[in-house]
Amino acid sequence: MNSSYRRARATALAVLLVAGASAADPAGAGPLPRLAVSLREQAGTAAFQHSCSLLRGAAVVVPAGSISTDGDGPSAEDIDGARRLLTALPAGSDVLLHLQIAPGGAASLDEGTLESRLSAAVATLPLAAVRGLVLQVVRPAGDNRLLRFALATLAIKARGANPGLSLTMGFPPGVSTSLVDLARQAAVYADAVVVSYEPGWRDDATWIERSLHKPVVIRLDAGSPQDPQAAARAYLDALIDADDLTIETVWADLGSTDGLASLCSTASRLASALSDAFAATTAAAVPVSIAVDGIVQPAVRAYLDTRSADVSMLMRTQATRERPRTLSFAGRSEKPFEIDCADALDGRPVPSSGVPAPGQAPTRACTVSTSHAFVTVRWAGADERIAEAVNVTGRAELRVEEILARWQQARETERQAFQNAMASCLLSLHFEPVGFGGGFDVALELRHFLDHTGVRDWVQTGFFLNGVRLKSRREFPLPQLEPERVLSQPLQLRLDEQYAYSLAGTDTVGGVLSYVVRIVPKDPNDTLYRGKVWIDGIRFRNVRAELEQRGGRSNVVSHVETQEFEAITDRQGREFTVIRRIYVQEVLNAAGRSFLLEKTFDFSDYLVNTEGFASALAEARASEDPMYRDTATGLRSLRKEGTERVVESSDSKRIRSLVMGAMYDGTFRFPIPIAGLSFVDFDFRQSGNQLSVFFAGPILAANLSRPLNTRLRLGLDVALSAVPQRSRVYAADREVTAENLWKFDEIVGGLASWQPTPTLSLTGSSHLIVSAFRTTSDTDPAFRVPARAFTIEHAAEAKFFSHGYGVTTTILRGDRLGWGQVGYANATQPVVQPAYLKYSAEFGKQGYVGRFTKLGVSLAYYGGDGLDRFSQYRPSFLTRPRIRGIPSGTDAFDDVGIAGVAYGFNVMELVKFEGAYSHAWARNRQESDRFRNFDGVEFNVGTSAPWNMFLQGTISYAVRGNTARYDSRWSVYLLLFKPLRR
């Protein structure tokens, strides 16, 4: 999306937003600011109704006490006084509550406690009965961070209680120099900002309008029992001094009702004279020159009539009854004009005089004895309007801080109306194939319960393994597949901001024009989210989120998720934003290696604020179904104790399972038994390290890995085996038994894995392989082999995952030490090379249709240089490359290319069937430089078995290949998996 298009979309959003705000706010009278008057006593309500009834848009400001920055709310007396005033005002009155914000006495507060206190304080305010709220900072607190949090929280909570509430914030004088950061951060939650009418106020007002882009409210502290017209004069002075500033409201804080009548009558007459057709402008735009007593140029605020050539001017004359002054007006052209002069305070007309002299510019004059005059200039018989470029200021785009503020306010509105929700959820987990068949697919049917206190419970109503519904109520070890819990969520209001936000542009998602906000942690080493969030440009609700997370102490190396949201309504028609779907791509660390896990949460059947919530949750807790709860440390099991459910106290991060079975692959004339115990501790000795152990009698494989930071992990490998590998050699498809050997490999080494991005993993490793050789009963005594030899292998691997796609590339170099001569003494070619190089590239894509139907495709190439019989690729059931149909130990290759396809489906949730086909091109350069074709098919079946086990069987058949070498084209594998209690 190019930048000009993004700007156009953002402008369109802003136009809609401004139009919506303008329609909701009551307007003032024409070009004049709205007038607001403070009332502190019940008697003032009658005076206001009597004096200000004709003034359109006039508002009443009702004091409601103060709130401290540590959450202490208004006193009961203050709230009672405010409620009495509200009751005395006529229904439909435009009322604003005035709340002072003062420093608190607490040394420090956590944000949870402070938010709770502020929420309780807001709950005491009669917000439902008013149109607006004014938050006035009395004086800066020592900790402006706390003050900012308090102001923002109050604004959010107040808007949550009354979504239509207008919000105004006031800061002490000098805000443009001494409180810049506080005002920038807090004012994004406000619709307007208050400036006290004191010396230097224009500097503050100009900065607020041009830097904060907020309308300005002028607060007049003008009450004077000795001078009833003092408030009216201050009001007129504020209008004149505003000049080119856009003032939304003039707020007169009178202290008493003595000047109320004069103020309202002055404002009312001025509003009647200046209709909606007038536009405010500067004195320079008026086509007449003005002087006082022939010398002084008065302070003037001009208004142009857009329907005629008339100009009205409000001016400060500094005249008194004792010292009247003459106002003279000279035309800038020879066109004759007339003037109407009046006392701006009480509306009394003032006679005018002046006769145009032939050949000279016309002049008119009037003598006034009032401090403020209102003058209208009319050009008799003139049809044309005055050419005037009226500068209308406005913003085309919202700042990202304002977008987040509106999102927080919209979210709070939903939160305060929210009571509970229930939903069905299908959680699907798809594991990358790691050796046994096509990988594992796990699915859980869940029922989700969420209440207004934040408790999130899940009840597991169904468990599927490879599409087979298991009858037992077994738990799935979800906590081990979760990243470390992020406690600081993006977009949330916090005392210490841990995220940086920027506006990435706009986008349309599901027909919703949205802002796209980019999120980046301020400290890259923190376990936080990064990514983008789509926010509805009109309703400011979540539309989509793409978030990623790396690091932490869990086995989740990287976590990338896409969240899709939708809006639903409750029985009362109130709208709520809920998650519809979450797609998660995780790179997990297991045995020091990275592999892919895809998770999908599909939510449906939402019920919000339903009366049946409590009974449904109680029924779930009383059942024998496994339950889980979201906690601050992750998802934890809810253990049943009698009739109650309690959070599992054990934070075990261990998984144990048994693997049993047998395999027959055509190499041997008898089946080979398989039995082993797998053990994984994801937090070994509470150190954050991961220990993986697989023990199967004569086989032991272990890995200990340690995260150094959010991107780098180190690991140590040990693999010991007392089971030999049979190294065979063929010539023209006939086995050369005289050169057969038994080979034992013991391996130790280390590896380092770096995660530069959530989808890319880079791993480097070095391993020492100690090889021991034994001859078979058929080995020629003249064929020499070392008793023991050493090989050092250095490898580099890159793995890329994205939305079901996976690409893996590897390169490996092996250097041999102490091998000596292998083979016959008179051999012309060495059997063993001193060094070799291997490289490979693999591509795979898995897709899912419906709940359990799977389609997969794969491509791979394996090659090398300097390969010999001990370093060539030997396909088998448990290692790569996997060529279906080839028995292990029968073929070795220097180059292999493989293409495969697999399709799996489920039958009545009882049996999972999967068929696979692979075609390979492979050659052994010691036999021939020609590639040979290999075709194989495979059929997998999986179903449940007794004693909470899962049975998986595989039948493989070699369609084409070196079939003369195979004792049988058929291979059969039978495996039983048994998870053990943690």
Q: Level of helix content? A: 10-25%
Return residue spans where pLDDT drops below 50 for at least 5 consecutive residues. 1-29, 386-396
Query: Taking Cα atoms only, what radius of gyration do you get, to the nearest Å?
Result: 41 Å
Structural class based on helices, strands and sheet pairing: alpha+beta
- CATH level 1 class label of the largest domain: Mainly Beta
CATH architecture of the largest domain: Beta Barrel
Number of extended strands: 51
The rounded distance between the terminal residues' Cα atoms is 50 Å
Shape: elongated
**Average pLDDT, all residues:** 85
CATH superfamily of the largest domain: membrane protein fhac: a member of the omp85/tpsb transporter family
- Biggest beta-sheet profile: 16 strands, antiparallel, barrel
